[in-house]
Amino acid sequence: MTPLDCFYIAAGAWGAAALAGLLTGRSGGGLRACCALSALGGAAAAAGGGWSLLYGNTPVVSLGTATVTGGPLQLQATSLAGVFAALLGFVAVAIACYAPRYHEPSPGTAVYLAAYNVALIGCLAVLAAGGMVTFLVAWETMSLACYLLILRHPRDRGVARGAFWFLALSEAGFLLVVAAFVILSSKTGYTTLSGIAAHAGTAGGGWRAAAFLLALCGFGFKAGLVPLHVWLPEAHPVAPADGSAFLSGVVVKLGVYGIALFAFRLAPPSGTWPGLVAMGGGAVTAAIGILYAMAERDIKRFLAYSTIENAGIIVTAFGAAMIFHASGQQALWALLLIAGIYHVANHGCYKTLLFLEAGVTEHAAGTRDMDRLGGLVHRLPRSAVIAFVGTLGIAALPPLNGFVSEWLIFQGLFQGFRTGSHLTGILIVLAAGILGLTGGLAIYAFVRGFGIPYLGMPRTRSAAVASEKGQPVLGPALLAVACVALSVGAPVVLFALSRTARTVTGVTLGPLLLPGNLTVIPAHTDFAAFSPTYLTVFLVCALAVPLLIYLAGRPRAGSTTVPVWDGGIVAFRPRMQYSAMTFSAPTRVTFDALYRPSVSVSRLSHDDPAGRSGPVHYEARVTPVFQRYLYRPLVHALEWLADLVRPVQSGDVNLYLLYVFAVILLAYLLGAV
Amino acid sequence: MRSDLVTTGASRAGAGAVTTFQVASPDLEAVVRDLSGLRLADMFASDGDAPTLRLVWANDAGGRQSGYVITETPIGGDQYPELSDIAPAAFVEECEIYEQFGIRPATGKPLNRIMLPPHADLPTLGRKPTREPDEVHAPHTVAGEAFEFPFGPVRQVGVESLYYGLVTSGEEVVDLYLFTWHKHRGLEWRLRGLTPPRALFFAERAEGLSAVALGWALAAAAEAATGIRPPVAAQRARAVALELERLYNHAAAMAALCQSTGLSVGQSAAEIALERLLRLNARAFGHRYLFGVIAVGGAGRAPDADAIRADLPGAYEEFKRAADALLDTNSFVDRLEATGVLTIDQARALGLVGPVARGSGLAADTRLVPGGPYNADIGTGIAVATASAGDVLARFNVMLAEAAESVRLIGQFLDAGTGAATTDLPRTSGTGLGWAESPRGEALAWVQLDDDGRISRARLRPASARNWRGFDDACRSQNVFTDIPIIEASFWLTAAGMAR
Amino acid sequence: MTPEELRETIARQFGRSLHIRTLDTGSCAVCEQEIRLLAAPHYDLHRLGFFFTPAPRHADLLLVTGPMIRAFEVAARKTYDAMPGPKIVVAVGACALGGVYPDDPFTYGTVDAVLPVDVWIPGCPPSPLALLHGLGVAVGRLTEKVRDLPFTAEDDDERIRGAR
Amino acid sequence: MTLWFVRGLRRGVVTTRYPARPEESARFLPGPPAFRPGALTRETAGRLAGACPSGALRLAESEGQADGGALLFDVGRCTACGRCAAEAPQAVTSSGAFELAATSRSVLIKEIPLRGRNDDTGRTA
């Protein structure tokens, strides 16, 4: 029995769930049955993933013979993929708990659930792929299933567009990944991943670097590296909430997995510059991601940009790990690998949670526009508490899990001086600086992301009548528990991850990372140390102190309660609250070079001579710089090219016969030569 | 007077600086178009049940204010032609007339709440409006990316109650509107049935910081209504008080400007000058704020000329020293420059008056109107200070120049001789318009006396009622939050004058 | 709490510093000007331990001007309620004491129709000196002279005859 | 800023010593009226009450009293406008008082005795 067996069970359960969904998804019972199967598969995948962390890599298993897939199915459970598989399984369980209450039974839901479960199988197959072809086929399966999943409501505004962005960029990335694999397999002569990994040295350093860069770009499309990120803010808002949660929580992480696979296992490039490229790209991605998040009012677009930011943080960590590897700092290599993977798990939990809660908000209040929400903490108290845990996590505030992984990443980056090269050291610390800015902005962004919708007064009537009756709770709650567990249980998690790191890097970091007393030491004992567990305990106690003081000092009699001092106005009105866009106005002003904001002020009667301004509608729009200045010219160029070659397709059968003849002639000629 | 008025079928009456035309309601729009070269100084209605709409036009073209034109139009139904589209300055008055008399412009464009509080049922001068004002300012759409910053009515210490609805995108002022109904004391409602001297008691307290100007305007209106002229010496006494009022107000505005820019040493220097000027007032006229100086038909008190001659140079020296020091302080001047800009077109369109209008380049000054003490027998005329930039610094410079001119004028009036004599007011009916140049600009009063000599309708229009409408425009012109107190100080208006 | 006890508490608790919040309930802006001048160099109320504070939450004393406009009652009550106890309300000026506006649909006419007034300062406007005296009376540091002022002048027969 | 400092030093102190010492400028302040009971007849008092714009003066209810009753003077309502002094200069002068704050409203209402039919009664009151 190996972890692979668990994966078989998972794939089987998900296959059954897909079938069940397709056949019975239009009835409530069928929906629940499908989700139960999906949860079962999730549990199996999570178990298998967790197990393979400790188990190490299994041998490659070949199933079947040459098939339509172009070769036998080659499978392998690896320690590196284990974290991702465990995350995949856990997210699948959470979504399975969430979906029955979120979706209405309908034919559309049936197709959606089938596509979703196929996507789960695809993801698992990517993680369990032991061979190149298997990997690529699984990758394509996952992409296509995700495309269907985004198209849940194909007639709604922007859905087709968002799904098309996703598919187009996925396919572009796929081509690069294929190229990367082809280079490696042709230079090493192996098609199994472990084969390539074992003989990577036979490929030249240049080829390995080329393969890595191709993979970085190719998987970067999935992971959302700037400027390859544009599908995320387009596709996430149009997918159903659990679909977006899956996209952000898992699919984006598979892009990160691909990068890690090439960076640490298949083609560890020699020299520091590929690492520098990855780290720089990651840092820029993180900063730009969070800055764009600040400019969004739509909760899901906001969260999508935040996903870009987090993917950037992870890739920064991986890039720095590669640099340390190339400069011989094996302990820091392992540390940053661990930290990056830890952040993958953390982000998978809280981002899934937040997307699921965004779905609850949308269903309960009818909108995702932060400036039309407000006061939800009184109307959706359970959701608010859960979302608060997720928000603390994603803002990387102690005692939640985001803090632990980001702390480890920072500690790794701060030790950039150990590379021995001044320039590299400075660049690493510079990346740490950018991540610091990102972290600060992330706190700002999530104060806004939680405060505007949940606190204050409802800004619209639909927000005022929101109710959480019948809204899903269990799924997000599971994720919230996981967030807490990943923080409190950080030593355990780090122990498991250090096994992965040992499998991948050969470096034994365990005792150094965890000297025993629940304390974490980032690779070198002379640098820093902290204990997430004790910190959590301390913070909880510290919170209790003011509470106790309050309880002890509460006056026994004679106290009066008066309303908030409001300057004597007749009544507060919802329009007197900070809105999402005004809250982020300072960043828009500070970074206006990036946002290129355009402001439109329209009044009921703008040119009224009497100066009656009328109701003012003020809107500050942010230019989507990458769409406008990168993709639009690209699309125009493609269209121009297509126009050029259009005469070729005339619709004339005789002409087509001529083409066929010409091609055959050419083939003969080439064969003769 | 414009001769083409005759072609619109208006009939003309009156003499001297004020000319009155009867205009039929259908002709009103054409007449307003005709008169749009003049400045619409005020607009009000009277006679509750069958309202008469009166428009007061000031003829101050070319910096020579030659007098006023009043048009009287009886309004039949509950509507009259839309005037604010032609003469934008009429908008606030349109709102006010709707609140008080229930008649509104025919186009049905939305009107603002001016005097009526949203949560109280107050008596009005005429019919009650058929529905609540629309409050076109208040509800900016929620979908917009700006929010309303509520400020007031209970604001800083030692300032009047006033509500600012500050619509902002975070820093930039998108829109700003004011509610002053917290201070509406129903003065025009109160004045009905009072004798002019009793009415004067309230007029002085309508806007205490221009007690002399408003009192003078009301007294002059009553005098015009009954056809008397106050003794020349009393007129000069009034003028001395008016100039003293201007001096202390400009000193107070200077102190407020310093406070708003956070320059407390400058504020102290300005306040020393202010306190000396107030003490001078008390010594010269027996009241720090010159209440009781104006009497209907003359002056209630004569200035103590020796006291003024003894104290004024010292007090003005204090003022001048503070002002010069402030103009030497770059950090202060920088905050004033290009802040709260009002162009001359805005000032003209909104009918602004006083240092605000003069700071934008409009040389309007009611002291220039012939017939008053200012150009009766002294003969040297008045130098009207103007500036063109229209920003806070321009207004500040105008104030400084006016203060110097006031000191000069006070000396001339004292030399010419002042006294506290009054002419008795006959008990006759009539209507009359009175005006005076308050420190904030033109203050107007109009009274209608019944046969018993009592007021049947009085209109008080302090300069504040006119200039607040320029305030939001000044705040909107590319300013941020922190500029608003500076702009407010440079306007130096009162909520009391606006709300009355 | 009787007035005497209140004054004693105040004298004890506010012996060194006392924070003042002002409230304009419809004044003509002159009382406000005089109040502002309290902080000016000529009067400098800080030397006596008084300070202005914009937040009623920090205020011990409420200086109320104006005749208490009915539309303003909500704001006045809110301001008073927002102050912590013990608190003093000082009515400032003839308007606040009922001298200018009657009890009618627009105004209450006096401040004590809405707020419990502890100290009354007459004057239209009360000069900064009168305000300083009133603040002294409010904290019990100055005595009330007006109690003993009869407002009758000694008869001076010659002057009366002369006037006649 | 240093310039301001120097200017301030040169300007010197202007702060009043009140309440420790009397304030010189107070004598110019308008004060509420003071009445000469000997010169106040009921008729004069009636005219004063009629002239007062703020209702600070009114006649006390005094039917059947021998001494002519009293003029009630509400210092709180007085605006020191001087109209009473202008109305009857022989009976009213300025009190010059400014320290008028009181902790009770009733303290501010003064009863000014009027001269009755018998002059002496009024004087001794």
Quick gist of this model?
The complex is a heterotetramer of chains A (673), B (500), C (164) and D (125). Chain A is an all-alpha fold and 673 residues long.
Secondary structure topology:
The complex is a heterotetramer of chains A (673), B (500), C (164) and D (125).
Chain A: H1 3-24, H2 28-55, E1 61-63, E2 73-75, H3 79-102, H4 107-128, H5 132-150, H6 159-188, H7 193-198, H8 205-223, H9 231-238, H10 241-266, H11 273-294, H12 299-326, H13 330-365, H14 376-379, H15 381-394, H16 401-414, H17 422-454, H18 461-464, H19 474-488, H20 490-505, H21 510-513, H22 532-553, H23 580-583, H24 585-590, H25 592-595, E3 598-603, E4 616-621, H26 625-645, H27 653-672
Antiparallel strand pairs in A: 1-2, 3-4
Helix pairs in contact in A: 1-2, 1-4, 2-3, 2-4, 3-4, 3-10, 3-13, 3-19, 3-20, 4-5, 4-10, 5-6, 5-10, 6-8, 6-9, 8-10, 9-10, 9-12, 10-12, 10-13, 11-12, 11-17, 12-13, 12-16, 12-17, 13-15, 13-16, 13-19, 13-20, 15-17, 15-19, 16-19
Chain C: H1 3-13, E1 18-24, H2 30-38, E2 50-52, E3 61-65, H3 73-82, E4 88-92, H4 93-96, E5 119-121, H5 128-138, H6 157-163
Helix pairs in contact in C: 2-5
Chain D: H1 2-11, E1 33-35, H2 42-51, E2 57-59, E3 70-74, H3 83-87, E4 92-94, E5 109-113, H4 119-124
Antiparallel strand pairs in D: 1-4, 2-3, 3-5
Tell me the strand order in the biggest sheet of chain A: 1-2
Mean pLDDT of chain B: 83
Determine the mean pLDDT of chain A: 87
Secondary-structure element string of chain B: EEHEEEEHEEEEHHHHHEEHHHHHEEEHHH
The residue ranges of chain B in which pLDDT falls below 50 over 5 or more consecutive positions are 1-15, 138-143
Biggest interface and which pair forms it? C-D, 49 and 48 residues
| Count of β-strands of chain A | 4
Major sheet characteristics of chain B? 5 strands, mixed
What is the total number of structural domains of chain A? 4
The N- to C-terminal Cα distance of chain B equals: 32 Å
Per the CATH scheme, the topology name of the largest domain in chain B is Cytochrome-c3 Hydrogenase, chain B
CATH architecture of the largest domain in chain B: Orthogonal Bundle
Name some characteristics of this structure.
heterotetramer; A: 673 residues; mainly alpha; 4 domains; two-stranded antiparallel sheet; two-stranded antiparallel ribbon; 4 strands; 70% helix; B: 500 residues; alpha+beta; Beta Polymerase, domain 2; Cytochrome-c3 Hydrogenase, chain B; 3 domains; 5-stranded mixed beta sheet; 3-stranded antiparallel beta sheet; 15 helices; 40% helix; 17% strand; globular; disordered N terminus
Give your account of this protein's structure.
The complex is a heterotetramer of chains A (673), B (500), C (164) and D (125). Chain A has helices spanning 3-24, 28-55, 79-102, 107-128, 132-150, 159-188, 193-198, 205-223, 231-238, 241-266, 273-294, 299-326, 330-365, 376-379, 381-394, 401-414, 422-454, 461-464, 474-488, 490-505, 510-513, 532-553, 580-583, 585-590, 592-595, 625-645, 653-672, and strands spanning 61-63, 73-75, 598-603, 616-621. Chain A is mostly helical. In chain A, the strands form 2 sheets. A two-stranded antiparallel ribbon of chain A has the order 1-2. In chain A, strands 3-4 form a two-stranded antiparallel sheet. The model of chain A has no long low-confidence stretch (mean pLDDT 87). The model of chain B is unreliable at 1-15 and 138-143 (pLDDT under 50). Chain B has 3 domains: 3-105, Beta Polymerase, domain 2 (2-Layer Sandwich), CATH 3.30.460; 147-179, no CATH class; 187-499, Cytochrome-c3 Hydrogenase, chain B (Orthogonal Bundle), CATH 1.10.645. Chain B is globular. Chain C is globular and about 40 Å long. Chains in contact: A-B, A-C, B-C, B-D, C-D. At the C-D interface, strand 5, helix 5 and helix 6 of C face strand 1 and strand 5 of D.
